Amino acid sequence: MSKKKNRPHGHYCKICGEYKANEKFSGKGHAAHICKACSRLSAAEKAVTMDINRLMNFPMRRLSESEKKWLKAKMKDDCQEVADTAREIYNVCFPHAERNAMKKQLVINTLSFEVHTEIYDGYGDMELVDRRFTIDRKSRVLTMTDFQTEYGEQRVTLEGGEMAKLLRYIVHTLEIFMWEQDYCLNPDEEDYDPFLDGEEDFFMEDLEDGLEVQPPKEPEGSPSWRVQVEYSNHTVQDDSSYEDYLPERPEDLYLSLLEYFELKEEVF
Ligand SMILES: [Zn+2]
Fold this sequence. Notes:
By secondary structure, the protein is an alpha+beta fold. 39% of the residues lie in helices and 20% in strands. It has ten helices and eight strands. β4 and β5 (141-146) form a beta hairpin. α3 packs parallel to α5. It starts with 10 loop residues before the first strand and ends with a helix. 16% of the residues are buried.
């Protein structure tokens, strides 16, 4: 019984990571575990080949600290191919890393949040909401405008700590900066021209034939909700939705902003 039964056939090359037949190795290369092809590479090429090889075989499990450290270092490698591959592997291993890195940098300066749709009010009823909230970090003023009532604009000024807490909640917990991606908002214009673009003839023919052709659904009228955010790093976010419901996190934002005004109303 061969001792090598469970091992891949041939001899291992530590550079390319392949098992190759013995004749692919020189005498010296055999001992050094470097195949003839790899021995012709320059030192830099050897290093790149080894790195790519290690990255391609990177374990898809919880990484040890030293593995993490190595992977992070490789994302800054001088060789672009190594750096790009390391970045890809890193994003697979740590899918939330990019979000978390962004969170640390993002501070909301101003926010405007409009809701014009039905919302489950938490007591078993659907309520038609037609409101706009604004937040201003510097003045710490929170406003609510209810377009359905005569109250007009109500405002509360938050304590410094309370304002910071609210803004942190919006970025860190609600991840507002990812809503466009998370809720597929503002799709590319190309998504809206299924057959009208360059196909007018087809469309007109169908109309002439008396066929009922539904034009592609385009956003009409005002959005059901819209969020505009200006961050301290001067980036601006402006997302609108035309779906007639409020997804989970925008609803959480709505309910938590509303609370500031409900508390105030109870006083009267
Ligand atoms: Zn090799």
